[in-house]
Fold Xanthine dehydrogenase YagT iron-sulfur-binding subunit.
Amino acid sequence: MDGEVELRVDGRRRRLRVDTRTTLLDALRDGVGAKAPKKGCDHGQCGACTVLLDGRRAITCLTFAVAHDGAEVTTAEGLAEGGRPHPVQEAFVERDALQCGFCTPGQVCSAIGVLDEVAAGHPSVVTDDLVGPVELTDDEIRERMSGNLCRCGAYVAIVDAVRDGAR
């Protein structure tokens, strides 16, 4: 059974005909040609497929494309503004927060989502003060980024890059 989906991917409107069982990840990679979200585990465990979906981070291998008709999708490819990389992307490069690079697009999108969550005051399981503003500690960053795995083990630099990206 096919369905038609319209997505705005990295600022461009895209209309796709997809099987109703097609994941958003497959629609992005195969239907749109987006290369940033990666198919890592295909079970929602590694975070390599993370994008910003209507402004919030989302794991695309666990959701169907037809459930997001009309959605705004931002991949790591669409983060640059005016030809200049997003500050979080710059921080990842400056901090050398990548090695093989496979997980990096998902890490960057997740980091931007983390910073937006913190700015909005959303607590996590390690947040001390559930009422006041959220302080972006290393523990806070590690907890919030825990859904994004790095096979190369660049975690220390990733935490530094997220902290730098907040500035």
Remarks:
- The domain at 87-166 is CATH 1.10.150.120 (DNA polymerase; domain 1).
